[in-house]
Amino acid sequence: MSLNHYFYEMNKPNRIYFIIGVSAVGKTTVGKTLSQLLNIPFFDADDFHPQSNKQKMINGIPLTDGDRRSWLISLNKLALEQSVLKGGVIACSALKKSYRELLRQNIKSPVKWIFLDGGFELLKQRLSKRKEHFMPISLLQSQFDTLEKPDDAFCISVDLTEDQINNQILDELGKSEFGLIGLGVMGKSLSRNIASKGFSLSVFNRFVAGKEENIAADFQKKYAELFDAKPFEVIEAFVKSLQRPRKIFLMIQAGKTVDAVIEQILPFLESGDVIMDGGNSHYLDTERRIKFLNDKGIYFLGIGVSGGEQGALNGPAIMPGGNREAYNLSGYILESIAAKDMQQQACCGFVGKGGSGHFVKMVHNGIEYAEMQLLAEVYQIFKYGLGISNDAIAKMLNAWRSSEADSYLLEITIDILQRKENGAYLLEKVLDKAANKGTGNWTTVAASELGVPISVLTGALFARYISAFKEMRVEASKVLPADKKVNFMLDSETIRKAYQLARWVNHHQGIHLLSEASLKYEWDLNLSEITRVWTNGCIIRSKMMEKLSDYLKDDSQLLLNQNVVEIVKQSKDSLKELIKNAVQNDLPISCFSEALNYLNAYSQKESPANLIQAQRDYFGAHLYQRKNDISGNRYHTNWDPKQNA
Ligand code: 6PG
């Protein structure tokens, strides 16, 4: 065995093959042959029937759902056991969809359904020749009546010869379980991750003469774990290389490219196939694509994937939304490649219907923007406020890592601060213009449309926008120079406490946005589960996220959770102190100040919005409500003193 093959054998998931269909289709014969070919054990479900079921069948009485339940449970237990041992082939009628769901329940490794399809007359003939079996011919009709043909199985007609059937099955199993389109940085890393878990994979990259040639083939040759992967540049051959129902993952640029690729693969797809979009697509585009494809019998999942190149390779956080059925077909692969949380659970879970997966990823990115901006503001305070060197800042931030302030973004910030090039800090050579790919903007727009105040996130977005006007800032700095009035009087602990509090406000706002979207779109989002998925693999993973996920089990408003209330009480003075120092020295701190303003507005019993209402009514007769008027009536007053005179 070659080293590559050894690697594959060590990692390959223990697959379960169910050979299914009504009585006399030849499940046992086909199953036994397959088990020999694959060198895995064979089980006949008939052997698992309790005597009472067998007796009923001998007496010509059809089994009911109730009769079959304990039998199916014992077969599910068998399949579960085999899935952690060597895998196995199980011959079982599995007539109804609900039976198949029960059979595959909780199995984390691949389950392949092979449906042997035969006509009534042929099977009746066969049954009449079967002597030793307890199933009488009279029950065949009841089996046909019960049968719900699977749409997620490989179907073979039993009109074929035994050899033809076996060859067709082998041909099918020789195809790939998963296909990935788009071999950019993320696509390559995800492909390697998938292949390293033992899944058979086809990869596709487009051919662009002189620019993108042989990308898939060269990539496949480069990595040991891809020894078994099939590379393609022709879309039809790629689609045909996949087992049915096909599972095709798009790791391509969000936007029009996704629609274009869907159009290209669509002619070769069949009903029940699944397309997954792993890019940062807009959730409304995802909703549109789900509808468009569902009308054609194709499933679609909009999947948020976070973690960058390393995450994609070693375990990203995965947020799939869309057709639940599609997740049932492909979730085991996604869960197997995802990062693991503290309890070793996959950082991947079905989010909800429609565009919810991409919406959740978008909010993740909104929170990410603010997490990054808060760290940028901390750096600015240390550097320009306190005049500390990058190494010294890194040292202080490193000390924060043993506290709840620890996060992936803090970790990489420390590395960045210390990085030198030719003896000088590289960071100081980086142009101070922040770019963006749009997800922060989408978060802000979505929040505005839903009427949710996410001011810290928006503060981060606008901080990026103003940074981009470098030339304008340079010009303005000559006319309106910063006025450094006082010496900064801040210690690292005060800054850390302010930072932590601002982070809680940021996360509170992001969660608030999710909960309002969940209500509006009827997604029924599980906020604790979503944040559990965010505890590892993704860019905003942090110590705080672990707590947060726990708190969200009881409180949907984070800032009202008793533990967070304590943090607010203990840290608000630090936040004020930090803002006071920054403001007095003309240092912009959008996120810190938005966090404090939000906290004050959020907990303000009497706001000045009564004046806004009066103004609206004055100039536009927009009506207003009166305090203590429980009827909810709306009033108009002619406020103009001239007209009242
Ligand atoms: C992630 C990142 C990823 C990407 C951002 C960058 O979760 O892995 O969020 O999706 O790096 O979209 O976004 P900007 O270019 O807008 O900063």
What does this structure look like?
The protein has 645 residues and is α/β, with parallel strands linked by helices. It folds into four domains: 3-173, P-loop containing nucleotide triphosphate hydrolases (Rossmann fold); 178-354, NAD(P)-binding Rossmann-like Domain (Rossmann fold, 3-Layer(aba) Sandwich); 361-600, N-(1-d-carboxylethyl)-l-norvaline Dehydrogenase, domain 2 (Orthogonal Bundle), CATH 1.10.1040; 609-644, Single alpha-helices involved in coiled-coils or other helix-helix interfaces. The chain is 53% helix and 9% strand. The protein has 28 helices and 14 strands. The protein has a seven-stranded mixed beta sheet with strand order 8-7-6-9-10-11-12, with helices on both faces. It has a five-stranded parallel beta sheet with strand order 2-3-1-4-5. A two-stranded antiparallel sheet has the order 13-14. The chain is elongated and about 100 Å long. The mean pLDDT is 94. The protein binds 6-phosphogluconic acid.
Please summarize what this structure is.
With 645 residues, the chain is α/β, with parallel strands linked by helices. Helices cover 53% and strands 9% of the residues. It folds into 4 domains: 3-173, Rossmann fold (3-Layer(aba) Sandwich), CATH 3.40.50; 178-354, 3-Layer(aba) Sandwich (Rossmann fold); 361-600, N-(1-d-carboxylethyl)-l-norvaline Dehydrogenase, domain 2; 609-644, Single alpha-helices involved in coiled-coils or other helix-helix interfaces (Up-down Bundle), CATH 1.20.5.320.
CATH architecture of the largest domain: Orthogonal Bundle
- Note the total helix count: 28
CATH homologous group name of the largest domain: N-(1-d-carboxylethyl)-l-norvaline Dehydrogenase, domain 2
Distance between the termini: 100 Å
* Approximate helicity band: 40-55%
**Overall 3D geometry?**
elongated
- Computed over alpha carbons, the radius of gyration is 30 Å
**How many individual β-strands?**
14
Number of structurally distinct domains: 4
Low-confidence residue ranges: none
- In the CATH scheme, the class of the largest domain would be Mainly Alpha
Bound molecules: 6-phosphogluconic acid
The CATH topology of the largest domain turns out to be N-(1-d-carboxylethyl)-l-norvaline Dehydrogenase, domain 2
